[in-house]
Structure formats: structure tokens, C-alpha cells
Specification:
heterodimer, A: Rossmann fold, two-stranded antiparallel sheet, 56% helix, B: alpha+beta, SH3 type barrels, 2 helices, 6 strands, 39% strand
Amino acid sequence: MSCHTPVLDLAPDTEELPPPAAGAPPGTKPMRTVALIGPPNSGKSTLFNRLTGLRQKVANYPGVTVEHHSGRMKAIGRGDLTLIDLPGIYSLATYSEDARVAVEVLTGKMRGVPKPDCVLLVLDATHLNRQLMLAAPVFSIGLPTLVLLNMSDELTARGGEIDTLALAKELGHPVALISASENTGLDVIPEFLLRAGSRPEDGLRPVQLPVLQSAASCRSWATQVTARTKYQTPAASTWTRRLDSVLLHRWLGPLIFLAVVVAVFQVVFLAGQPLSDWLTSILTKGGASVASLLPNNWLRLMLLDGVWNGVQAVLVFLPQILLLFLFIGILEDSGYLARAALIADRVMRAIGLNGKAFIPLLSAYACAVPAIMATRTIENKRERFATIMVAPFMTCSARLPIYTLIIAAFIPNRLFLGGLLGMRAMVMLSLYALGFLAALVTARLLNSSVMKATPAPFILELPQYRWPTVQGLTLRLYDRGKLFVKKAGTIILACTFAVWVLSVLPIHAGQASALTTSLIGHLGHFIEPVIRPLGFNWKIGIGLLSSIVAREVIVGTLGTLYGVDPATHSLGLQAALRGDMTLGGAIALVVFFAFAMQCTSTLAVVRRETNSWKYPAAQFAYMTVVAYVAALVTNQVITRLF
Amino acid sequence: MELTALSDAKVGSAGVVETVDLPENVSHYLAHLGFLPGTAVEVLRRAPAGDPRVYRIDGVEVGLRNETAKHIFLRLNAVGAA
């Protein structure tokens, strides 16, 4: 569920391209590939989604896109053209991994990606002076380029003005004012593609580009251009100023930050739990009524016990997952995330982490996989690796099912402060804090030993606040929900089915084994001595083993095992766990999950990003040992106290 | 007029960048955010902990730690002119 597909490469097998729709005159090379380039947070991915009909992740902070993504431009009827979305860059000089990707693709040096035939240069129209600095080096690559001044809605709303015709003359390339988010002005793109495809030399040539392409000369060139074309800088957004004076206020700021975090968990419990209970009853009834239609034989047993129990146990957490992502979406799209990074920088610095590490770490609250990829924006290799090493400690959404299951089963639903603060939400918050603490301590350890890095500066652009759109949020939730259901129907189904098969084998004289004498029972009892001090029984042990694949699998496995066990067959999973675990063991279990590296996708992406098995292996060993020790201490302490 | 380190400029004051005295990779990045000689800069606010602070340069707001800002020097505008 929780993980992005690491690579969305619908990419270019140019061999199979249909002939261009626009009849290119004979002799000219047909156009195939279009590149989207621009500074960070100028809205390239929003435009990419508009033009291809695909759904790349977009958000309101710089550095969302760290890889190149390709898609056919189907949404504007040019399925013959491949559009490549690139990470944002300030110049063609590259200091970080994501910028290197952008420049290599643009110059045709990236293996497996064809050299682009033309370029869509996306600039934020609200601060053109600075954005134009990228235009000079991009023009000098010599490809047909369309300059798109994005966020025209914002520009006019704040009283800015621009003469696109004069600018086009000045730049020697066509210029258009668009708003990718409002879907206005985009008609120029198919027009440009038609002309660029048929008439490679379209008369317009750069009038004058800076000779030395240093930052300073690009800058003075950009200033001259904007001055000559009477660019009217828009007034500073008063809303952003006003909001920031509250949200970054000396003591209101951190207080609001804390309140936001608490509110998220509170809502996940108060609204999520009833929805989840409702879903449970529907799915249980649905499963039972479908099962009653089937003949009472091994098939019904296999479908109900082997497949449905496990998958259903995970599926019921869909409401909580969606609520969590709704909040993450609002925080990311509004621009608050960058402010949170600013507030947290003091803490990050104290532990020796780059301020830039904060945004990847925050996004690890959704899933560690994209977070680890987002570390590509960190220039310093050691700091980048240190951030990769600590990211899986951040509480990803895959931990949510086991957390909510255990908390709902063992923690009373008490409210404090007139219902503002719930005990369950507080326990959940402590688990998140625990993960964060582990990340901090680990970073500190790494920083003072193997990964000692020269301090890199904290430089953070604060984007304007924007209203998250209903459409944007709905699409995010839809994608997330789909991913979660898909994971439940594939990996989780496969794992829990395997557990079920092992729980009925071996077959004696046509009879399935009893649970304790089955293969899985033997395996469970074999490992039980190792986990008994943690307060875990053998079923939990099997859950831990199976969830090395993915964290949610433990809930599926427990659903299957307690469903097969005649003693707990008719109970819900919560009730079954309450009867079979002590409070100490239950809390130890969530503490174990706070620390343990139970995720093969994360291990794979760490292997890919560090290009070595050494890092994922060390990470797995370290996190498992920390998890074991922490769970042991938790169980022993709680058992003695209560 | 004297040059002032950006980190020493008071919140609310404004000036023009004169020099950026930082390693090449850092100054390169800063340059593309607008921190180049001749650009007007304004000290907007400080983060709740006092550091980093937020500067407005060229229509964008940028957060910088004081340890970085102290290597950027500016010529302050006369009081009231900001």
C-alpha cells in the first residue's frame, strides 16, 4: 500500500512508435521526444499530468520530482510523442543527483532515453527575473524551445504584468502565458509541436545570449531582458505574509505545528476507527454470505480461511490510510511542509543532519521508498547516505494497520481535555515520536563515526501558500486507495495464503493438521523460545517472519492464524488478540514494529540508491537488533509495572 | 557606507547584496536563487528558534541559517527607505 511504485518508466521504446500524426514533410526527421525542463517547483509535473493524462506526484515544494518520467502526450491527442518530465534545475551545472539526471536527459547523454527533439521550458511567471536565468543555458543547447510562463493566474491576481510578444522577440523563442493548474493557455503547446515538427527552422533565433554562462552573466542578461520587455513583478502575496507571521511566529509557530500533528492522529482515530469497524462488519458479512453459497468443502475453507480472513484483516484499515494521506496531501499541496522544515531545522542541526534532509524524512511518513529517492536532492554524498540509513525509522503508513489494531484492542478509548486529547491518539503519537527519536539517535551516531560529513548549508525556498484543490486531493486519495487495495490483493494475499497452506499441511488420511501440529505450528513453536521474552506467542512469531516481506502482512497473517484456530475462530481479530496476549506483549509488538526493517521494497531501493548490498544488510541487521532489544525492555518493564 | 553581514541585518531592514563569500558550490546555488551582487534583499522574519531566518530576494522567500548568511554582505538601505 504505502509505497510508490519506485520507477514509473513507461519509457521510450522508440522502435514501436507510430508515424507522426502531423504529416511531417519528407526529409525532415519526425519528432518523437519532448522534454519538460524548468526550475524546481515551477509546475512541470502538473503540466506533465495535463499533457499526458498520467498522474505523477505533484506538491507545493521544490524537489518533488527526482527522476525522469516519460509518458505519451495522449491528453492532447499526440500519442505519437513521448513527453519526459525532468527534475527541476537552476542551471546546467550539476551538484546533486537529481540535477545530473535532468541535464543528461536534456543533452541526450542518458542511456536508454532518446535525445529530446524539442523542449518545453516551464518558468514561474511570478518571479521571472530569476527564472529566466535558466533560459540562456537551455537555449544554447540549440533545440526548438517553447517558453511557458506558468502560474499566470497567480501573476494577474497579484498585479504582475508581462508582454509575451516582446519577450518572444527578445528571447528568439515563442513564449506563452499559461496556468497548468487552471488548465488555461495550454492550446499553444499542440500548435508549437506541430510547427516544431514540420518546420525545424522557424526563423526565430536567439537575439543575444550571454557569452559567459556564469550565474552572474545569466543574471544580468535576465534582468536586461525583463527590463526591456516591461515585466511588472507581482506584489508579494499578502496571504503568504499574513499566514507566515502566524505559522512561523516565535511561539505560536511550534505550537500550531504540534497541534496539527496531534489533530492528524486524533482524526485518524476518532473518524477512522468507526469507519474501519463499519468496513469490518460489511466485509465479514459479505465474506460469510458468499461462503454460504459455496459447497461446504475444502474450496470454501480455502477461500474463507486461506484468502479472505487475511486479506480482509488488512483491507479494513483503508479508512485510516486514506485519512492519513488526506492530511499529508493538504500539508504538501498548501506549502506548509517547507515551513515545518524551517521550524524543525534547529532540531535537525543539533543532531548533525542537513536541513534539506527534513523534507525526505517527512515524506517517509508516507513511505520510505520515495523518501529514499528524494534524498537525491542532497548534494553531499555522506549526508545523503546518512539520511537513507535513518529514513526507514520514520513511521511509514505500512505500520498503521498493526498500530491501530493493537491500540484499538488494548488501549482504552479515554478522552482528556474535554475530548481534545485521546489516549489512543497519544499512544499512536508516542510511537511516531519513538521512530523519529530512533532516526535522530542513529543519525547522531552515524555523524560522529562513519558518516562524518562537512556541514552543508541549509538553503530552503519557501513556496507561496496555495489552496489544495479538491481535485488534486481526490486523485491522490484514489491513487493511494488503489495502491493499498492492490497490495492487499497481491503481496498480502500471497503471503497469507502461504501461511494458511502451511497451517493445514501435512494432510493425514485426508484430514488437515490441527494448527499446533501443522508445519507452521512446528515452525512457530521452534522459534518461540527466541521471542517469548518479548511477550510474543508463536503466532506473533510467524507474523513477524512473514512481515519481513511487508509490514502489513503481519495483520493478514494474524487474521489467518486466529481464523484457523478453533478457539478463536468466531472472534474478531481484536478480541482474539486481547485473549491471547498480555498488555506488555502487545505494546512490545508495536514497539518492535516502530524499529524493525520489515520491508523488502525499502531494502531493494536502498540497494539501488547506494549501489551496494552493504548498506541494506547493515540497515536490516541494525534495525532488527534495536527492535528486539526495545521490545524486550518494553515487555519486561510493562509486565513488572502492571 | 559600511558593509553588513546578512545575518546581522535586523528583521525588517533591506539592502543590496555586495559580495557572497562562500564555497563555489554553495555560492552557485545561492546565485541562482538571486544572491548575486546588485540584487535587493529584505530580511523578512526569523524562524521560531531565531535561526534560520527568512529573506525575500527577487520575489522569492528563502530560508538561510545564520552560519550561511554571515558570509553574505550587503549595503543596507538608509533607514526608512526600506
